[in-house]
Amino acid sequence: MVEVVILGTGNVAFHIFQTFSEAKNIRVIQVYNHKKVSLKSFSKLIDTTTNIHNLKPADFYLLALKDDVISEIAQQLNNHKGIILHTSGAIGLNALQSATNFGVFYPLQSFSKNNTVDFTEIPICIEANSTENLEKIKSLALEISTDVREIDSEQRKALHVAAVFVNNFSNHLYSIGAEICDDHGIDFSILKPLITETALKIKNLKPREAQTGPALRNDQKTIETHLALLPNKHKHIYNLITQSIQDLHGKKL
Amino acid sequence: MVEVVILGTGNVAFHIFQTFSEAKNIRVIQVYNHKKVSLKSFSKLIDTTTNIHNLKPADFYLLALKDDVISEIAQQLNNHKGIILHTSGAIGLNALQSATNFGVFYPLQSFSKNNTVDFTEIPICIEANSTENLEKIKSLALEISTDVREIDSEQRKALHVAAVFVNNFSNHLYSIGAEICDDHGIDFSILKPLITETALKIKNLKPREAQTGPALRNDQKTIETHLALLPNKHKHIYNLITQSIQDLHGKKL
């Protein structure tokens, strides 16, 4: 049984708290946040503290915090022997170098408060300051996920950018789709099966092979009809992605 | 039992042929293409013809053809009493007005040759030149799908643009994600659970509410780190979608 203190109360902290609490060999023993109000939903379930000097001895201190405070908080945990972990895609391992034992525990998923998350298939990207710590972090990660991968800081940064494209940016394209539907009195739900199919298709096909549409076909007539129908604010995105598709697939505009 | 002649042998024709063949009350009686070689995979299963003047009498003539030949082919079907249908998102109902009975049968989905498709939940957008024909088309559509919606030509055009955003453009963002992974020695499969979750999340949340990421948080430091890591060709897309997210959510760059 390993004992974990979680620092932070945001979406990542919340979901990791939940999955750790259900794991057989993990015991969350404390949750920290500097604001008492943020601890409200945890305080009925677990010991909480707003005082960083009152953290309990533990095997792991999981910093599920905003990127810009990770290094600073880590420095205040100098005296702890447990492994200090952060959960950020964008922050290097060396942000924790003031500690003795440290590593990264980055679950590659987008967390929202109101969504239940099954961690079993979520890739956990791990990194550590020593082989011994890496093994310990791996064991921790395998308690909740079947997909644990060693990813170094440079790769993790690249992965974080890639995640922005496939997650944040795709979701924004869904928002634009919803806006176009609203503007024309169409129920957005009509697009949901297409959105699902688009995502599921790349389970078996490379995205490049799955590409379809007027940009790929270089169907200028349809492209012009689409541009005529779009408000200016969306024309630029339409043009730029159309051109990017044609560049990737070697078509001429 | 209604009888259908399918004109065209592309992905849409192929998948509609398959689902119609399995439907209880539909009988596909003939497939037409002007090229004999294109009919090869159909000719063992069904009567085929390359001669448009040899089409059999049928209740429906389904034109699953390239947009730019729909009107021309429809004109050659003047003497048929069956309902002439096209399957295009981009073409208006009036492209078929040379016929007596006509309408639109637009399945809102992206079809690839090597993907099996379950039509049950695919929205079928229908339109017709008369209430009577609309009812007949509706009955046909309900044979294969539970989601049949009356959508007029203007709405269908808007829907087609929205579909380009959520399907073609999202898929291209997956391609960019895959490219970034390749460039950094990361197996693209690591992004697949995130892609699936991103698509599934909007079943319960509006895309606008599901938005997360550095653009939404106006996290300049992360945005700059991402831009520094990206090749020039992807910087423009990153910047433009970041700005579009901030415009939609009322953040300032």
TrEMBL record, chains A, B:
Pfam families: DUF2520, F420_oxidored. Residues 122-245 form the DUF2520 domain. It comes from the Bacteria. InterPro entries: 6-PGluconate_DH-like_C_sf, DUF2520, NAD(P)-bd_dom_sf, P5C_Rdtase_cat_N, TM1727-like_C_sf. SUPFAM superfamilies: 6-phosphogluconate dehydrogenase C-terminal domain-like (SSF48179), NAD(P)-binding Rossmann-fold domains (SSF51735). Residues 4-83 form the Pyrroline-5-carboxylate reductase catalytic N-terminal domain. This is NADP oxidoreductase coenzyme F420-dependent.
